[in-house]
Design a protein that fits this description.
About 25% of the residues lie in helices and about 15% in strands. It contains 14 helices and 17 strands. The strands form four sheets. An eight-stranded mixed β-sheet has the order 5-4-8-1-9-11-2-12, sandwiched between helices. A four-stranded antiparallel β-sheet has the order 14-15-16-17, covered by helices on one side. Helix 7 packs parallel to helix 10.
């Protein structure tokens, strides 16, 4: 009997959402305790700031260029070897409960298995998981959670936010007290909301296993991704009227425009609605129209959803203790990407490689039986390191094709591993608008090279000194005094970026 692995992810959670990472509003005692007892990675980055490429990296241990899921709507090919396949091959029982998003939600069910499996009465096996039960943050019509609600609580489904319009676009309707976009008063009972459903189904799968089983379960919460419609019964947790505005919220449209003057033009185009570059924000939404009170209410809903996630995690960890598994279970907690959540006057996500979207909460609480001391690690790490970390926990060799390193458990180990850089990529094409960004974080600098696209000629970019400017407001790309540094970082970026997969994978649906 070996060590067991509980892998917990959220969707679209900021690094600073948690108390252990400086959060001042949401109460997250369970996750904070994991950080206190384990390793908290202070400079963890994703390899893409959107769902499908980021999740493909977690599954494969590869950079985006290698696995080829270059934007949302591009499916990870079913024949791709995954870390779940590898663990299963080495005797682990495997499950994924909650959000998968390895295939496009809006893709045809006859093409994409994840969009028909629930209706076929299937729970796998799929992609190396013995069991897969899917949930989403809206009712797309085909997940296991959707069918559960249709069967058991059809009357409560009407209270959720309607995520897509009849034309298939993201909804821009607002609600709540301020009319904020995608905020909604949801009368659903707490116990059947998807956060608790994911925890319930995780517990049910764990209960099906024998005491001596080795297992890996990915418990994947859809929240706090928009729409922001947690159970109305929980709105009392955070009073939006009492919240301070986010530290990086400029306070007014004029101040935001001034802040964005130093950014490349697509930042400003998103803010004022003159340029729509990606599907990660609703078409027609203009961040310049957000009011301070709307930002407060959106933030409050995020905090509420994060508290519910923390409580769901606590339930699962309590079960592990009662089952006698706690001492031999490693817990890893992270998210796929962040949320702008008012920073720079913006909302949602997109081609913006700054901490709001790129910096991750990443916590590893090793099994107490392993005897690994708590620590903080400031060296750069990423999602690309998770596959090898699972192998390290399991005590098995690494599969071929992985591109990271097992996460270090101390600063000394990080130095021994020569942890110097972490890379993040962005590619998008929407009609005639394309964007291609490549980012390196190294030596306390974040450097993003803009490759040739419909908007840029390949000479533009962003460069931030995190020591002097942790808020990433002062773009040093065109600073003559930093030209040598910029050149060195860009050269290092391309020296370590893998070659792009060819032929390029097809995009099968919008998202």
């Amino acid at each position: 009997m070996g060590r067991k692995i509980l892998f917990i992810t959220t969707d679209q959670m900021r690094y600073d959402a948690l108390g252990c990472n400086g959060g001042q509003v949401a109460r997250t005692p369970c996750i904070d305790r994991l950080a206190a007892e384990g390793i908290n990675y202070r400079r963890a980055h994703n390899q893409s700031v959107v769902c499908m490429p980021a999740r493909a990296t977690i599954m494969t241990g590869q950079h985006v260029a290698t696995h080829g899921v270059w934007m949302n709507g591009v499916a990870l090919p079913e024949e791709t070897p995954t870390i779940a396949h590898w663990l299963k091959r080495h005797g682990y029982h495997t499950a994924l409960i909650g959000k998968a998003h390895f295939e496009p939600w809006l893709g045809a069910p006859e093409i994409y298995y994840e969009n028909r499996m629930a209706r076929e009465g299937s729970t796998g096996p799929h992609r190396g998981f013995d069991r897969m039960e899917l949930a989403n943050h809206f009712f797309e019509g085909h997940s296991h959670y959707t069918l559960f609600m249709q069967r058991e609580h059809p009357e409560q489904m009407r209270g959720f936010y309607t995520m897509t319009t009849a034309a298939g676009q993201q909804n821009t309707a607002g609600g709540g007290a301020t009319g904020a976009i995608q905020v909604w008063d949801n009368p659903v009972e707490r116990g059947v909301y998807h956060t608790d459903w994911v925890a319930d189904r995780t517990l049910a799968w764990l209960a099906s296993l024998s005491d001596d089983a080795d297992w890996f379960v990915w418990m994947s919460f859809p929240d706090p991704h928009h729409p922001w419609d947690p159970p109305a019964s929980e709105r009392h947790r955070v009073d939006w009227r009492a919240l301070d505005l986010p530290r990086l919220y400029p306070g007014s449209a004029a101040a935001a425009a001034a802040w964005l003057a130093d950014k490349p033009p697509h930042w400003r185009g998103y803010f004022d609605g003159s340029l729509w570059t990606n599907l990660e924000s609703p078409r027609g939404f203009r961040p310049c129209d957000l009011t301070p009170d709307q930002v407060r209410e959106i933030d409050a809903m995020n905090h509420i959803e994060n508290e519910l996630i923390d409580e769901a995690c606590a339930r699962v960890l309590a079960y592990l203790g009662a089952r006698g598994w706690a001492a031999d279970t490693d817990v890893i907690f992270t998210t796929d990407h962040g949320e702008l959540q008012g920073d720079y006057g913006l909302l949602f996500k997109g081609p913006y490689h700054v901490d709001a979207l790129m910096r991750l909460p990443l916590i590893w609480r090793p099994a107490p039986s392993a005897g690994i001391a708590p620590a903080e690690v400031h060296a750069p790490v990423g999602h690309v390191d998770l596959a090898q970390t699972f192998c390290r926990i399991a005590g098995i060799a690494e599969p071929d094709g992985v591109e990271g390193k097992a996460l270090p458990v101390s600063e000394d180990e990080a130095r021994a591993q020569r942890r110097e850089r972490v890379l993040t990529e962005w590619d998008s094409e929407h009609r005639s608008v394309s964007l291609h960004l490549r980012t390196i974080c190294r030596d306390g600098f974040v450097c993003t090279a803009y490759e040739r696209s419909s908007l840029y000629d390949g000479s533009e970019g962003e460069l931030y000194d995190l020591a002097a400017d942790p808020d990433q407001r002062d773009n040093l790309w065109d600073d003559p005094a930093r030209r040598g540094l910029r050149g060195e970082l860009v050269a290092d970026l391309y020296d370590h970026l893998p070659p792009r997969r060819t032929p390029r994978l097809a995009r099968g649906a919008p998202v």
